[in-house]
Amino acid sequence: MKNFFPLAALVAALLLSACTAQESFQNAENCVKVEVGMSEQQVRGIMGAPTGEDAAEGSGKTWSYLFGSATDTQPIRIQFDANGKVSSTTCAPEASGSERPTGN
After folding, report:
1. Any domain includes 79
2. Which residue positions does the secretion signal occupy (predicted)?
């Protein structure tokens, strides 16, 4: 029974990194679909719930999404203006959806 817990922890860690890599790939694919002028609701429909949210200048806000591997992350950022419309996007350099993050 003692050996079960380390094995379970290892399996959980492997599954978590696989989920993170898959989510990261989906965020990369979806990021390029977000266009200036879209509403928050439209972005949420494409990208899902943001990983983080920060206030921006002029009553706007910035949503962040995970991109990268467990050891190298760079957020995808969607900036909204004071009216809740996309003013700009910052997709990770590899966020074309053509390459899957390795999840390492």
Report:
1. yes
2. 1-21
